[in-house]
TrEMBL record, chain A:
GO terms assigned for molecular function: GTP binding; GTPase activity
InterPro entries per UniProt: P-loop_NTPase, Small_GTP-bd, Small_GTPase
Top-level taxon of origin: Eukaryota
Keyword vocabulary terms for this entry: Nucleotide-binding
Region (Disordered): 1-23
Listed name of the protein: Ras-related protein RABF1
Organism, scientific name: Coffea canephora
Protein's UniProt keywords contain Nucleotide-binding: yes
TrEMBL record, chain B:
Residue span(s) of domain FUZ/MON1/HPS1 second Longin: 342-435
Function field: Plays an important role in membrane trafficking through the secretory apparatus.
Organism (species): Coffea canephora (Robusta coffee)
Name of this chain's protein: Vacuolar fusion protein MON1 homolog
Comp. bias intervals (Polar residues): 40-49
Compositionally biased tracts (Low complexity): 1-21, 106-120
Family, similarity comment: Belongs to the MON1/SAND family.
Region of interest (Disordered), ranges: 1-173
Length: 200, 616
């Protein structure tokens, strides 16, 4: 056995190390924020990120393992830049217990569901509650109904999404990673809502 | 034949004994239930082939085992559908193939499903059982016996089939499901399906329950079922606490090999979930594990595929990408640097071959863990998209605890895995990766790796053409012979030259290093099917050399219509060599001596030397 030299898993209880410094490290013109995507498996979290970061859409589903890390910088009209450091988490059940590792210290959480799947909407509500309990205080939360291009298969109305978002102080948007609809708007809207550090 | 009701209740008093059944003497009833499985599997050969013939559908397939049926009813076995399309064209023009394309795991994009999980498992194939209750296989049985009017003991079949034309894909799937030569199942001790190589797990609940019933029947008798021979089929069982693994195969692989494959399958599951998953079964014996494995179908199917082509699966050793000593040293130095900063293992790999590997002090990595880890990374597409951080468990290192893996691809083939015990180490590992990348680029390692992928391998032909000088790894001669291989690959009837004495292929495993090196395949073994057949022959040889009762042997020379195989085991190494079946024995032995010398001469380049010692 290779266990003879096995280290005890002494770090297992210690979460929250996945922060560069803080959730956001900023000077007044260049913001850096940690953003985490959460949601059921198959709702299109990775597709949203890849559309935003690389402008790509890959219809073949690639199940995310653990979490992927990507970053993208956008420039706002007021000439500030925002660098998003994005944790694209896996939606599988076995990773649920690890989610705190990724959302702890995040300044922004994007909770995604699939408008054709009420189950995924229920899962999104689970994540919202989880974040309200354990997320960073003052975290910006967005509720995203993805796959908006599949209107004919819609099972979660925009009204339901919006109402739930409003009730929970979230920002709501419906997107389509496939058509790129509202993807940039999502991240721009988030960027606008970021607290600005006082100019030094 | 035993009646269905007898075998289902396990209380039969029938005197009929099946001579092919369980080797350990057991009450006749178990023979019957096993008999039932055999019949169920064997019944496929009674098919009218007419409904199965869809030659054009086979083009999506690259790893599948089916039994080919000729129209006259005689059975011919095809070990594998060849992977490259030319081979397929050849094959389809000369042979009649059963329809298998829909069964290919992971080939079809997963359909989004309401559960989220079912779609992601990629098990698009169905077995045609869904119309029956899942938990009660007695019900299934009755329905089935009625539905197909089968009175020859097909008692436990959860997947009824009807001969002749079927309507819809599901039914065809069910037919082809039975035609598979090699099934793998993982199930829980309560009989809940966890994984099936073919077919949708949820729809195989009845079949799983049957397997569970067999295992627990024997266990209730204070015994353990390991192997059942049923005609051409072997049913191999492996019990790991609450997890049962079963392989049903008619590939004639030795029991030891199949059992080893089940062990690896179990290890792969532990790598994803750790052994602490057992606790779920302590809390709830009927726990359904399938959601926990969501999205990992492709990992398992890729592992099972590797049983056909990756000798690491039975040699329990890893292989290195051939590289100039200095190049590997350069990579090793930076990995060592990183390992000293709190990384447990730093592994740089190119596909399934190791470029360099460094462990923290006293940490050792078992070759099986490396195999499972690289299979996990290579088969999971998402790692290629961007850098990732994921919990994984190394079953031989510590089966109870997760480690955290930072994975990054430098190019399409070359990737870095950094393992740590700290869940918060991502940014540190990311920095490490950036440092490593800088060094690799500066010292040209990645370019050398690509070059080696293309040309720097051991060709048996070089043993004959250049016996006096040391055949170098990157000599121009090697690349020439590679080109020659490519251009002649399309010839169907090639009279193989191979190396001296008709040497076609060899594998050399260094026992001390726990590494192996294998030559390129000589032309007579140029198709995937032939390579798979050779690996199977090696596997048999390996099993016979390591047999506990008679072994360990020192040398073995066996000749059949396909090859002359020579195996030589010493304290330091094991050599497996395949020759032309007409090869002269004395010359073959000479050639093997030269191979060993050759390996010694280039060991700096084909092995990773001075890696942290392996101890387990």
């Amino acid at each position: 056995m290779g266990c003879s030299s096995s280290l005890p898993d002494r770090n297992s209880g210690r979460l929250g190390g996945l922060n560069p410094e803080n959730g956001s490290a900023n000077d007044s013109k260049n913001l850096r924020v940690k953003l985490v995507l959460l949601g059921d498996s198959g709702v299109g979290k990775s597709c949203i990120v890849l559309r935003f970061v690389r402008g790509q859409f890959d219809p073949t589903s690639k199940v995310t393992i653990g979490a992927s890390f990507l970053s993208q910088t956008i420039a706002l009209q007021d000439s500030t830049t925002v660098k998003f450091e994005i944790w694209d988490t896996a939606g599988q059940e076995r990773y649920a217990a690890l989610a705190p590792l990724y959302y702890r210290g995040a300044a922004v959480a994007v909770v995604v569901y699939d408008i054709t799947s009420p189950e995924s909407f229920a899962k999104a509500q689970y994540w919202v509650k989880e974040l309200q309990k354990h997320g960073s205080p003052g975290m910006i939360m967005a509720l995203v109904g993805n796959k908006a291009d599949l209107q004919e298969k819609r099972e979660v109305s925009a009204q339901d999404g919006m109402e739930y978002a409003e009730k929970n102080g979230m920002f709501f948007i419906e997107t389509s990673a496939k058509t790129a609809d509202n993807i940039n708007q999502l991240f721009e809207e988030i960027a606008k809502r970021l607290p600005r550090p006082p100019a030094s | 034949m035993p009646s269905p009701s007898n075998s289902s209740s396990y209380s039969s008093s029938s005197d009929e004994k099946n001579p092919n059944s369980a080797p350990n003497p057991k009450p006749p009833s178990i023979d019957q239930s096993l008999d039932a499985i055999e019949n169920q599997l064997a019944s496929i050969s009674t098919f009218q082939p007419g409904s199965l013939l869809e030659p054009e559908s086979e083009f999506g397939v690259n790893d599948d085992e089916i039994r080919e049926e000729l129209v006259n009813g005689s059975i011919n076995e095809i070990e594998e559908l060849p992977g490259n399309s030319e081979e397929k064209l050849k094959a389809s023009s000369s042979r009649v193939w059963a329809n298998v394309s829909e069964m290919e795991e992971g080939a079809a994009p997963s359909s989004p499903s309401s559960s989220g999980y079912a779609g992601e498992r990629g098990s698009s194939a169905t077995s045609g059982v869904e119309e029956y209750g899942n938990d009660d296989f007695n019900d299934d049985e009755i329905v089935e016996v009625r539905s197909n009017g089968d009175f020859d003991g097909v008692a436990h079949s959860p997947a009824p089939w009807t001969p002749g034309k079927r309507h819809g894909d599901e039914d065809d799937d069910s037919v082809s499901w039975r035609k598979r030569k090699k099934h793998f199942f993982i199930l829980s001790h309560s009989g809940k399906p966890i994984y099936s190589r073919y077919g949708d797990e949820h729809k195989l609940a009845g079949f799983s329950a049957t397997l569970q019933a067999i295992i627990s029947f024997v266990e209730n008798g204070g015994d353990r079922v390991k192997l059942v021979r049923a005609g051409k089929h072997q049913v191999v069982f492996l019990v790991k606490g609450p997890i049962y693994l079963v392989c049903i195969s008619c590939t004639e692989e030795p029991y030891e090999s199949l059992r080893g494959q089940l062990e690896l399958l179990y290890g792969q599951m532990i790598l994803i979930l750790t052994k602490s998953v057992n606790r779920c079964f302590e809390k709830n014996p009927k726990f359904d594990m399938t959601p926990l494995l969501g999205g990992t179908d492709v990992v398992f199917s890729s592992l099972i595929h590797s049983f056909n082509w990756n000798p690491a699966t039975f040699l329990h050793a890893y292989t290195c990408l051939p590289l100039a000593y200095a190049t590997r040293q350069a990579a090793g130095a930076i990995l060592q640097d990183v390992a000293d900063s709190g990384v447990l293992f730093a592994i740089l790999m190119c596909r399934h071959k190791v470029i360099c590997l460094v462990g923290a002090q006293k940490a050792s990595l078992h070759p099986d863990d490396m195999l499972l880890l690289s299979n996990f990374v290579v088969s999971s597409e998402s790692f290629r998209t961007s850098e990732s951080f994921s919990p994984i468990c190394l079953p031989r290192y510590n089966p109870m605890a997760f480690l955290y893996a930072y994975v990054h691809y430098f190019d399409v083939d070359t990737y870095l895995i950094l393992l740590t015990t700290s869940s918060g180490a991502f940014y540190h590992l990311k920095d490490c990766r950036i440092r490593i990348e800088t060094v690799l680029l500066k010292s040209n390692v990645l370019v050398e790796v690509q070059k080696s992928m293309l040309e720097g391998r051991m060709h048996v032909e070089d043993l004959s053409t250049n016996p006096a000088s040391h055949p170098g790894i990157a000599s121009p001669h090697l690349s020439q012979s590679r080109l020659a291989t490519d251009s002649t690959e399309r010839l169907t009837e090639f009279i193989g030259v191979g190396g001296p004495a008709g040497l076609w292929h060899f594998m050399y495993r260094s026992i001390y290093l726990n590494q192996y090196v294998s030559s390129e395949f000589a032309l007579p073994i140029n198709s995937l099917r032939q390579q798979k057949r050779l690996y199977r022959a090696y596997q048999k040889l390996y099993a016979s050399m390591h047999e506990k009762d008679v072994g360990p042997h020192k040398t073995q020379f066996r000749r059949d219509e396909n090859y002359a195989l020579l195996c030589w085991v010493t304290q330091d190494f094991e050599l497996y060599a395949a020759f032309d079946p007409l090869a002269d024995k004395a010359l073959a032995i000479k050639a093997c001596n030269r191979v060993c010398q050759w390996v010694k001469d280039v060991e700096n380049e084909i092995f990773l030397l001075g890696a942290s010692p392996f101890s387990w």
